[in-house]
Amino acid sequence: MYIKLENINKTFGNFKASNNVNIEIEKGKLVALLGPSGSGKTTILRMLAGLEHQDSGDIYIDEKLVNGIPVQDRGIGFVFQSYALFPYLTVYDNIAYGMKIRKKSKDEIDSKVEELLELVGLKGLGKRFPDQLSGGQRQRVAFARALATEPQVLLLDEPFAAIDAKVRKDLRRWLKEMIEKLGITSIFVTHDQDEAVEVADELIITNEGKVEQIGTPVDIYRNPKTAFVAQFIGDSVILEDYEYEKLKGFTRQEGAPKAAIRPEFVNVIHSSGNKEQSSAYMPGKIVHTEFRGNSMELTIEYEGIELKAAHQIDDFQAKKGDDILFKVTRLYAFDDDNAYTLINEILKDNPEMYYI
Amino acid sequence: MEIKKIINRVLKSGLITWVLLLAIWSIGSLFYTPDFLPNPIITLDGAKTLVTSGTLWTDIFVSMSRVLKGWTAGLLFAIPVGLCVGNFKWASYVFEPFLNFFRFVPAIGFITLFLLWFGVEEKSKVALIFYAVIFPVMVNTIAGVRSVDHSLIEAAESMGASKRRTFFTVVFPSAIPNIFTGVRLGLSSAIICIVAAEMLAASEGLGYLIYTSRLFYRTDWIFAGIFTLGLIGLLADMLLRFLGKKFLYRFGVR
């Protein structure tokens, strides 16, 4: 493994930021550290960079133990959440900063800065100061600057957090393409699931200082291994006390009284729909609707349970108070530690497409 | 539109303040004798006398050269020391108690001692200004160093910068706006201090002029001296701000 964290522990005062963290990352992968705030994801990134030091445990980069190696010599590039560009230096000088430390020749620096500016799409802006750039442009400069020293690993701390929604989407795609092109092993921190799923090859889910699950986005969405992941990923509704038994096609999973159901697992059809289509349909009532741009989120009431369903507007008009039919394709039953994927038993025989 | 613009400009220029001041002064002077409160015209006459006789120029020159010497020496000492105190723990342990004690003791309190130690000549006045300048400069420099955005330091280090390099390329440049504020405050302390010092122990200078004018019942000269001081301070600060904006703009000096 290219990057390895072994039994890492770290506390700040009484706060356990890392609790026996074990992570392995392959070379060339783009990995997201995903978790709620305070879950210790940034701490992991900073320890990897050498900006923070673990209380115990070992960190390896490229099979080399780097515990005692200071940030200056770790060969990492770090992109800060607030960009951390030097405001008193031009874009050119910001990018050249690390190369000057390495005593590169003027020509070498010149051509490298040019190359990087072109790479990040900011050609000709070298003479500007950071405050003359937009947020997205600053982020690109920060990215170019981190790459200028040709690091073995690129670390990004909430790289899109300070950028407005529209630009963020473009920038995500841009970053993913860029990193794939360069083939540099990269790890970024985020609390935004969409961002993590869209950008990363692999997710590391953290919670309360622990690593909950590591895997590809599809794997983590389809097969959450822990109770936390089942609830955290997706916009789930949580049912307690085996309430999920009331749903057609599901039976009790002993020891797992709770269930997480995502809107995309709930399928809604018009009440006049062909009931014979499947015996898995149950009658429900829409108690709330929320417009989501290209789709709607319906809140459905059924025997005292409230579920959320994703509904395509084109299918049929749905409004508050309507009676509809719905089925649940799958859910995650879980106890305090483990999560189990339950697939609707009625539908098992004639499997349908599952949404991820 | 045009008229509005002109009114706006006049308002912003601070002209109104001066017109108001002159008006109040003129009206006030109607009720008193010129010895007690000379009106603006008498004061202007007095100033003319001082200018034509050359005294005013000499006094300005003498005072300002003292200010310049003490101020420059003060900056040369206080900025590096402030940077060290702000940046290095050991320096803050050594200097800060001293700093926090003496910055509450005004320079005037030291006049007698400085006269005793440095003599009645220039040295004692320059030393006094030096003393008055170093505190505002140091306090602001230290504040500047301590308010440096920590992520800038981490960014520099992540690119391989040593502590030393980080100090010179990140900490110092980031502290420049605060240091500059200190420099400006230092100049005003210097001017305040030199006048007080010249009143007590000098044979030339604006402070001396203001103080000795009472011996000749020349209240108008006192007024002329006061205005000269205010004007010099104002112009010096304007010049400093202009230079700061011109040369230190990129560091955030506005």
UniProtKB/TrEMBL annotation, chain A:
Keywords: ATP-binding, Nucleotide-binding, Sulfate transport, Translocase, Transport. Its EC number is 7.6.2.9. InterPro entries: AAA+_ATPase, ABC_SmlMolc_Importer, ABC_transporter-like_ATP-bd, ABC_transporter-like_CS, Mo/tungstate-bd_C_term_dom, P-loop_NTPase, Sulph_transpt1, Transp-assoc_OB_typ2. Gene3D superfamilies: P-loop containing nucleotide triphosphate hydrolases. It is an enzyme of class 7 (translocase). Residues 3-233 form the ABC transporter domain. Signal peptide: none annotated. One of its GO terms (molecular function) is ATP hydrolysis activity. It holds the Pfam family TOBE_2. GO terms for cellular component: ATP-binding cassette (ABC) transporter complex. It comes from the Bacteria. NCBIfam families: 3a0106s01. This is ABC-type quaternary amine transporter. It comes from Pseudobutyrivibrio xylanivorans.
TrEMBL record, chain B:
The keyword Transmembrane helix applies. The chain crosses the membrane at residues 12-32, 70-88, 100-120, 126-145, 189-209, 221-244. It comes from the Bacteria. CDD domains: TM_PBP2. It is a multi-pass membrane protein. Residues 56-244 form the ABC transmembrane type-1 domain. GO terms for cellular component: plasma membrane. It is found in: Cell membrane. InterPro entries: MetI-like, MetI-like_sf. The keyword RNA-binding does not apply. Keywords: Cell membrane, Membrane, Transmembrane, Transmembrane helix, Transport. GO terms for biological process: alkanesulfonate transmembrane transport. Belongs to the binding-protein-dependent transport system permease family. PANTHER family: ABC TRANSPORTER PERMEASE PROTEIN MJ0413-RELATED, ALKANE SULFONATE ABC TRANSPORTER-RELATED, MEMBRANE SUBUNIT. This is ABC transporter permease.
